[in-house]
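Why should sequence recovery work at all? Because a backbone constrains its sequence more than one might expect. Tight turns favour small or flexible residues, buried strands favour hydrophobic ones, and helices have their own preferences. The token representation captures these environments compactly. In the example below, the structure is given first.
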């Protein structure tokens, strides 16, 4: 049965880093994927780029993954202020929930130390307590991470993930934004389940029908 899948990304590019390969695989299998990003981090963009560059980049990146333009949902919260706007964010997430009614929701880990990621994780759990919830891995922010679910991937899924992330020209200075790291992490997770590649998730809730 085809699924309706929602990716919650605190900032543009978080969804691609956390589950870009899985998004590619899910779309290839005929599932409908939606992507909601809550901030384009305009306050943090380097001076040599337009302040709204991440909006352009997320549109290009999600297109590479195969997400339909109409399935990309962009909010305009200021970066590093989410914890002050929890109720507003929860209300926006509920609106998305009511519009999409997703079967599976991907979101950051509840153990993610970034304040914006943490807020999206906990408000997401409140909104989607009746859906399957899987938290994606971001090693640079995760002090602990329970590797309780693996989604196996092919080389093609990893290459699409890398290609999608390459659209973020404004983020290439980050130590984890390179093809070698992305592929190596997927290979490590694959080895853990005797496959070539995988992405790993924490299970918050799993509903089988």
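From this structural description, the recovered sequence reads:
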């Amino acid at each position: 049965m085809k699924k309706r899948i929602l990716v919650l990304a605190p900032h543009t590019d978080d969804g691609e880093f956390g589950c870009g390969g899985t998004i590619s695989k899910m779309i290839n299998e005929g599932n409908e994927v939606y992507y909601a990003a809550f901030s384009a981090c305009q306050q943090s963009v380097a001076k040599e780029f337009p302040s709204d560059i991440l909006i352009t980049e997320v549109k290009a990146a999600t297109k590479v993954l195969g997400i339909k333009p109409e399935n990309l949902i962009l909010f305009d919260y200021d970066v590093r202020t989410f914890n002050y706007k929890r109720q507003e964010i929860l209300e926006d997430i509920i609106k998305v929930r009511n519009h999409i009614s997703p079967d599976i929701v991907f979101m950051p880990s509840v153990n993610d130390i970034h304040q914006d990621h943490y807020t999206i994780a906990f408000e997401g759990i409140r909104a989607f307590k009746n859906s399957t919830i899987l938290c994606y891995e971001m090693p640079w922010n995760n002090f602990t991470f329970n590797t309780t679910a693996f989604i196996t991937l092919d080389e093609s899924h990893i290459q699409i993930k890398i290609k999608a992330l390459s659209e973020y020209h404004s983020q290439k200075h980050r130590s984890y934004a390179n093809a070698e790291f992305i592929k190596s992490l997927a290979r490590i997770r694959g080895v853990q389940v005797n496959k070539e590649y995988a992405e790993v998730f924490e299970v918050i809730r799993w509903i089988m029908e």
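A few observations help interpret the result. The chain has a mean pLDDT of 97.
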